[in-house]
From TrEMBL:
Topology of this chain in the membrane: Single-pass membrane protein
GO CC annotations, alphabetized: membrane
Signal peptide: 1-24
Coiled coil: none
Biological source species: Abrus precatorius (Indian licorice)
UniProt keywords, alphabetically: Leucine-rich repeat, Membrane, Phosphoprotein, Repeat, Signal, Transmembrane, Transmembrane helix
Subcellular location(s) of the protein: Membrane
InterPro entries xrefs: Kinase-like_dom_sf (IPR011009), LRR_dom_sf (IPR032675), LRR_N_plant-typ (IPR013210), PRK1-6/SRF4-like (IPR046959), Prot_kinase_dom (IPR000719), Ser-Thr/Tyr_kinase_cat_dom (IPR001245)
Protein name: Probable leucine-rich repeat receptor-like protein kinase At1g68400
Length: 615
């Protein structure tokens, strides 16, 4: 009896302690003002990730957080990292004012509009990474007062106005390139130690470290002294002066009124027929979307007529010819943003719709090199390549105009909208897409034998999808830019950066494309996103998808690697695993052991035929 009592007593004590712990957690569970600030972001913006489903409950439990992109320390939010998650909308200006322990804010490569957020009172903020968005307006002067800031990246936005006089000794990385900033770069000791590339592509910016000198403003002339009256002449009294001034004003007003009436009669009599045309032209010029039109208008004003778009040798003959003036009047919307630049959907006044890619990181490319490469790529005609229609070159801007493929990307088709209500992407469709990509890539390798890596930027977000009554069709885009990126640092912006030979600094060949194609095949087969499998695999070379697949199969082929959407299909598992085996050959660590694309295509067609026979 006493034993039962003792056990019961222990349970009561444990329950009491547990309840106290829960109460303590409830009391100390989180700082509501920090949660409310994050909720403001969640409810104000759209995203490709489900923040509404993930950002629930307290953001911090001691040093842990289950919220996507949030890092905590001692119950406080200390890092917000939401990179390339398609955040879109206007960022609430003061949402950070209560997250006072924040040391890193990373919102790079999204679709955020409006002014830059206020960073006031963020005494511990070390990194503010807001580049590759659509922020506009001026850089807040309060940024100068951030005492701990080390990294400030604001490049590739639409910021205007002058650069504040940053002089924080802690600031070690600074970039405001590719904006619309103007005026003289402040001559603070901190700003002057950054390279020219930190300020590039702001056409109205001047002063060191740029080569562009600021115009010298002449001093204002001193007012001439009023001559003294001759001897014996009595200066008029103030009342007389006032009366004379009034007479002069009356005469002047009458003269101006008469001139205005006369001018109006002339305009009505002779220029009225042109009024409608002028109004129409003004409306066209003012209707350009700011995101596209602001820099396009500046580009047109600064370019020679000989550089403007025109009918090129490889222009699509089915499309009406257009030039830069037509382009800058086009309404536009952002389709996407990648490491090579921003892509817009542009609707010309004629009704023609095209995709316009505004290239970044190509300032060192000469006009001759650019024209040669674009003319070469423009000759590439294949059903599985996005066609290049035209292009534009100036020192400040470089554009490539493509046919518009408007049904999204392979990445979106595979990964967006997962969950209830999604229509599964069946195996037959996936195999067709894989074959389409292989055809396009094999054609590039055959047509560009002189290019060491003909595509160089092959990834699922650069496979565009078109859907019609017969199903899905795919086309490759962003191909052929490696020759325009001779510097390794710039080449790191391409998909080939994941290949083992690039990581090790070895010679690149077209087998780097084969590696990237193998990764895409595995992405289609497994449904997993390359580079986002941390925690599912230990000790891999570069944490890539191929390493995970190799670890799972471990010479014992299993359907565990298959995407659940195709695992549910009763037929086709053998073909799926054979294709997986081919993908692993394509992603071999040794480039020489990878098959050529012509052979890869042949084997895919054999697997497709085997599937048809089994069906």
């Amino acid at each position: 009896m006493s034993l039962v009592f003792n056990i019961s007593f222990c349970y009561v004590i444990l329950l009491f302690v547990s309840l106290n712990m829960v109460l303590c957690i409830e009391i100390e569970e989180f700082y509501p003002q920090e949660r409310d600030a994050l909720m403001l972001i969640r409810d104000s913006l759209n995203s490709s990730v489900n923040l509404h489903g993930n950002w629930t409950g307290p953001p911090c439990i001691d040093n842990q957080s289950r919220w996507l992109g949030i890092t905590c320390s001692n119950w406080h939010v200390v890092q917000i990292v939401l990179v390339e998650v398609n955040l879109s909308g206007y960022l609430p200006l003061t949402f950070l004012q209560n997250i006072t322990f924040l040391n890193q804010l990373d919102l790079r490569s999204n679709e955020l509009f409006g002014p830059l957020p206020s960073l006031k009172n963020l005494m511990f903020l070390q990194q503010a990474l807001l580049s590759f968005n659509h922020f506009s307006g001026s850089i807040p002067v309060e940024y100068v007062e951030l005492p701990s800031v080390q990294v400030l990246e604001l490049q590739e936005n639409y910021l205007d106005g002058q650069i504040p006089p940053f002089d924080q000794p802690s600031l070690s990385s600074f970039n405001v390139s590719y904006n619309h900033l103007s005026g003289k770069i402040p001559e603070t000791s901190v700003l002057q130690r950054f390279p020219e590339s930190s300020f590039d592509n702001n056409s109205d910016l001047c002063g060191k470290p740029l080569d562009k000198l600021c115009p010298v403003e002449p001093p204002a002339p001193a007012p001439a002294p009023f001559p003294a009256p001759p001897p014996g002449v009595i200066p008029p009294s103030p009342a007389v002066k006032k009366h004379k001034k009034l007479q002069v004003w009356i005469i002047a007003l009458i003269s101006v009124a008469a001139a205005v009436v006369l001018l109006s009669l002339i305009i009505i009599a002779f220029l009225f027929p042109k009024r409608r045309a002028s109004e129409k032209e003004a409306t066209r010029n003012d209707s350009a979307n700011y995101v596209f039109g602001a820099w396009a208008k500046r580009m047109a004003a600064n370019s020679d007529v000989s550089e403007r778009l025109g009918q090129l040798e490889f222009s699509n003959k089915k499309l009406p010819v257009f030039d830069l003036d037509d382009l800058l009047r086009a309404s536009a919307e952002v389709l996407g943003r990648g490491n090579l630049g921003i892509t817009y959907k542009a609707t010309l006044e004629s009704g023609t719709v095209v995709a316009v890619k505004r290239l970044s990181h190509m300032n060192e490319v000469s006009k001759k090199e650019f024209l040669h490469q674009m003319q070469l790529l423009g000759q590439m005609k294949h059903e599985h390549l996005v066609e290049i229609i035209s292009f534009y070159y100036s020192e400040e801007q470089k554009l490539v105009i493509y046919e518009l493929i408007s049904d999204g990307t392979l990445f979106e088709l595979l990964h967006e909208g997962r969950g209830m209500g999604r229509i599964p992407l069946d195996w037959t469709t996936r195999l067709t897409i894989i074959k389409d990509i292989a055809k396009g890539l094999a054609f590039l390798h055959h047509s560009l034998p002189s290019h060491k890596v003909p595509h160089a930027n092959l990834k699922s977000s650069n496979v565009l999808i078109h859907q019609d009554s017969k199903g899905y069709h795919s086309k490759l885009t962003d191909y052929g830019f490696l020759p325009l990126l001779p510097i390794r640092k710039n080449a790191e912006k391409l998909a080939i950066k994941r290949s083992p030979e690039f990581v090790k600094g070895k010679k690149l060949t077209n087998k780097a494309d084969v590696y990237c194609f193998g990764i895409i095949m595995l992405e289609i087969i497994t449904g997993k996103i390359p580079g986002q499998i941390i925690g599912e695999i230990e000790e891999t070379t570069n944490n890539d998808l191929s390493d995970w697949v190799r670890t799972v199969v471990n010479n014992d082929w299993s359907t565990d690697i298959l995407d659940l959407e195709i695992l549910a299909e009763r037929e086709g598992h053998d073909a799926m695993l054979k294709l997986t085996e081919l993908a692993l050959e394509c992603t071999d660590m040794t480039p020489e052991k990878r098959p050529k694309m012509s052979l890869v295509l042949m084997r895919i067609e054999e697997i497709e035929q085997m599937k048809k026979e089994n069906d």
